[in-house]
Amino acid sequence: MRIDILTVFPEMIEGFFNCSILARAQKAGLAEIHLHNIRDYTTDKHHKTDDYPFGGCAGLVMKIEPIDRCISTLKAERSYDEIVYTSPDGEKFDQKKANSMSMLGNIIILCGHYKGIDYRIREHLITREISIGDYVLTGGEIAAAVMADSIVRLIPGVLSDEQSALSDSFQDNLLAPPIYTRPAEYNGWKVPEILLSGNQSKISDWELRQSLERTLRLRPDLIS
Fold it and tell me: Residue 69: beta bridge partners?
């Protein structure tokens, strides 16, 4: 998988992709993540990528020309399954979307900034708009990093234990059950006896009940 991230502030997230699971995925050749500075595609001598909006409303808007040039350059080199725009009014990103997007080949993620982007980009170049939550961020860089992390870790071979991803919260619309590790007792706090029993069938039943109980208590909206 290849993910190309278009941004005016690549330094905000470049370190994020150089450590932990994302770094290992790239080193193993399972994923490519490339950051592109939109400022490199403007003809403005000051590398300006924003301008005042028509109509007189407050704020600045990302200009159409440098974004179009950047996307056109990338599309001339390869085909893309999705061109995503990070937007607070996009469809809500969740585990189901992460699963489906992890099976794609090439993705562009355009990070919004300032007041947003010239709407013609959304009308003619973007194939999908995605939000990571009902709040506004300074820019879409954090949203792009969140999506890339969630997607890449699902690619087969990225995690040393692929079953780990399948048991994560939200994979089956349930929150994960409580988990514990050694020591079995600390400061008088004990691990549930069932987890020490070695009876995998009973442990699985306990984990499912715990997942259901936690989901009903903490996120009842997940259960239809």
Answer: none
Q: Please write the tens of the pLDDT for every residue from 174-184.
A: 999 999 999 99
Closest CA to 36 of 86, 108, 88: 108
Cα–Cα distance list, 218 to 96, 176, 213, 222 (Å): 19, 11, 8, 9
Give the pLDDT score at 104: 98
CATH code, 167-222: 1.10.1270.20
- Return the DSSP state at 46: T
Q: Are strands 82-92 and 106-111 parallel, antiparallel or unpaired?
A: parallel
Give the residue extent of every domain in the chain. Answer: 2-152, 167-222
Distance between CA atoms of 33 and 149, rounded to whole angstroms?
10
> What are the CA-CA distances from residue 133 to residues 9, 90, 142, 187 (Å)?
21, 9, 12, 38
Q: Are 139 and 12 in contact (CB under 8 A)?
A: yes
Considering only the top CATH level, what class is 2-152?
alpha beta
Count CB atoms within 10 A of the CB of residue 213: 13
165 versus 175: the higher-pLDDT residue is 175
Neighbouring CB atoms inside 10 A of 11's CB total 10
| Residue 66, both tokens | 């440098």
